[in-house]
Amino acid sequence: MHGTVPASNDKPSIINGLSVDVEDWFQVGAFENSIRRGDWDGIKTRVAGNIDRILDLFAEADVKATFFTLGWVAERHPAMIRWIVDAGHEIASHGYDHARVFTFDRAQFAEDIRKARAILEDASGQRVTGYRAPSFSIDARTPWAFEELAEQGYAYSSSVAPIVHDHYGWREAPRFAFRPVADADLVEIPVTTAMFGNRRLAAGGGGFFRVLPYAFSRWAIRQVNTNEGRPAVFYFHPWEVDPDQPRVPNAPLRSRLRHYTGLDKMAGKLGELVREFSWGRMDRIARNEAARAIVWSGEKAQLDTAA
Ligand SMILES: [Zn+2]
Asked: 68 versus 255: which is more confidently predicted?
């Protein structure tokens, strides 16, 4: 422990959402042009070993989290799904095989989330009520996605990055919980951004957490909890705690830089993060936030984001 870390009574009391997007090292967007889906079954899996490490880390810190899991992964690792559930965590859906929502039409999306959910409920023995789009791929191009999630009875989604990024993002979306379908209970809980002046900074995990010093994430989550009084939503991937994963030599340099930077320090940073703040499952955050969620369907984007 470091002497400068504030005592635990200094912890903001707000419970933040902790989430893991469960996919194997070869299933990430950065490698989608280097490794074909059809070849996945022939590649050596590492996801279960990484999940084992993550479950230990969460147990040591006594935190519960949500594991947004690919149907494809759950089909092949049912025992791993039971480890997660037996430790008190939530299993939610990350779609079947990481195809991004804007590559589907509504009927294909409906089928993808139906298939993934059936596999996940079968493996976990629990009802799946949450969904996270692969690569935060619900945006202005997919106006039907939230309607479909509501129709299939999902309680919440955490599928929007309310920021612009080169691979994803919905700049106009609200930063905190909103109801995207006016007459449904479905709540969308966007991944966290922090305000720096008038700018939204990505602060909910991914490459930013690995590449930037931990002090940035501490500052950002404290801003959100203390100054704005709202929960943060943080996510990471099993492959991020795995410095020994195979390297993909034919991937673009930029993808490799983004994928491999900071892997060796990730577990240590995560340890600090889970000890320093209060964390819970996403279904709990969705319940806590439901009453405060504004209605926002994306159509009056320009009006609502001024605030
Ligand atoms: Zn993913």
From this structure: 68
Whether residue 307 is predicted with pLDDT greater than 70 in this model: the reply is no
The contacts of residue 257 (CB under 8 Å, 6+ apart) are none
CA 66 / ligand 1 centre spacing (Å): 13
- Beta-bridged to residue 91, according to DSSP, are 67
**In this structure, what are the phi and psi dihedrals at residue 27, rounded to the nearest 5 degrees?**
-105, 10
pLDDT band at 299 (very low <50, low <70, confident <90, very high): low
227 C-alpha to ligand 1 centroid (Å): 30
Spatial distance between the Cα atoms of 97 and 83, rounded to a whole number of angstroms: 21
Q: How much distance in Å is there from the Cα of 8 to the middle of ligand 1? A: 32
User: In this structure, are residues 109 and 148 in contact, taking their beta carbons and an 8 Å threshold?
Assistant: yes
Buried b (16+ CB within 10 A) or exposed e, 45-66: bbbbebbeebbeebeebebbbb
- What count of other Cβ atoms lies within 10 Å of the Cβ of residue 264? 12
Question: How much of the chain exceeds pLDDT 90, in percent?
Answer: 81
| pLDDT value of residue 267 | 94
Q: Enter the pTM of the model.
A: 0.93
Query: Cα(29) to centroid of ligand 1, in Å?
Result: 8
User: What is the 76 CA–ligand 1 centroid distance (Å)?
Assistant: 17
Query: Can you give the length of the chain in residues?
Result: 307
